[in-house]
Amino acid sequence: MDKKTKRTALGLIIVIALTALIGMKAGSWLPVIGAQESPANSYLSPYYILSAKKDTHANNIVTAVLADYRGFDTLFETCVLFLSGIATLMVLSTKERVIPREKKHEPWYSKSQDREYHASYGGTILQASFRLIVPVVMIYGVYVLFHGELSLGGGFQAGALVACAYLLDRIMPSFVTRIGAVREEKMLIVAGLGVFVYAFTGILPMFFGGNFLEYSKLPFAAFVAHGEAGLHTTGILMIEIGVSICVAAVIMTILEVVLERTDFEDE
Questions:
Q1: Residue 45: what pLDDT?
Q2: Does 31 map to a domain?
Q3: Domain assignment present for 56
Q4: What is the 3-state secondary structure of the chain?
Q5: Which of 91, 88, 110, 90 is nearest to 99 (CA)?
Q6: CA separation (Å) from 53 to 42, 63, 248?
Q7: Is residue 183, in this structure, part of any structural domain at all?
């Protein structure tokens, strides 16, 4: 074992040891899982159950927790997802897509034709099935988004469904009416727009005497019915739209990054 390998092994051991020590110390500060005296089991859960409707005007407790009581946390989760898309693009952006050597020398080959030439799947049955599945998945994704305030939230699920529809379209490139490939850089901009929509929804009430994510202070009272409940529904919908845009765009970005640098043709 040479000197460089020994240094690498020693550094790895030190990192593992420090990580273990920090984790053990941090774990000692946290309540025991399932402990009756923990905040979640002692007073938070009963408070949410009894007061969520009165405090947030949400018809579902899960939506109230995610969009009101834990609004900051959900925003940070969206930001983390956005950063994961940036990290994926930064890590893989310098790698060239793998193209079979014999294919590069074909007289008809070009990068624009390459995407159409490759198909991970094929066959008449799959093509016919996917033509039906893709629109249904898109419609269901939109339904989940606009139904999120009344159910268990819909931003993350709706974004994932839209991305799944795009994935199904991309792995079946023989479609006549394809959605079409998108540039991953543009998709990251769209993901950032989703985060901006969420943050803007939280900041907007602050200009009208409210707190961050205080939906009752949104300046849309003249356009919605049912007073604070209507404003709450509008605010939830706005942040759900932001989350959906971010989730869908990040998943599509990661998919395109992988597809741009991977060749699926059997050799």
A1: 84
A2: no
A3: no
A4: CCHHHHHHHHHHHHHHHHHHHHHHHHHHHCCCCCCCCCHHHHHHHHHHHHHHHHHHCCCCHHHHHHHHHCHHHHHHHHHHHHHHHHHHHHHHCCCCCCCCHHHHCCCCCCHHHHHHHCCCCCCHHHHHHHHHHHHHHHHHHHHHHHCCCCCCCCHHHHHHHHHHHHHHHHCCCCCCCCCCCCCHHHHHHHHHHHHHHHHHHHHHHHHHCCCCCCHHHCCCCCCCCCHHHHHHHHHHHHHHHHHHHHHHHHHHHHHHHHHHCCCCCCC
A5: 110
A6: 20, 10, 30
A7: yes
Task: Indicate the pLDDT class of residue 120, thresholds 50, 70 and 90.
Answer: very low
pLDDT at 115 over 70: no
Domain containing residue 65: 61-260
CB of 197 within 8 A of CB of 241? yes
* Cβ 259 vs Cβ 95: under 8 Å: no
Q: 51: which residues sit within 8 A by CB, 6+ positions away?
A: none
Q: Tell me how far apart the alpha carbons of residues 129 and 152 are, in angstroms, rounded to a whole number.
A: 30
Residue located via tokens 């950032």: 192
- CA dist 225 → 149, 193, 204, 231 (Å): 15, 28, 19, 8
Is 209 or 106 the better-scoring residue by pLDDT? 209
Q: How far apart are CA 129 and CA 78, in angstroms?
A: 33
Please indicate, yes or no, whether the overall pTM of this predicted structure exceeds 0.70: yes
- Kindly state the percentage of the chain with pLDDT values over 90: 19
Residue 30 lies in a domain: no
How many distinct structural domains can be found in the chain?
1
Q: Rounded to an integer, what distance in angstroms lies between the CA atom of residue 143 and that of residue 57?
A: 21
Confidence of residue 89 (pLDDT cuts 50, 70, 90): confident
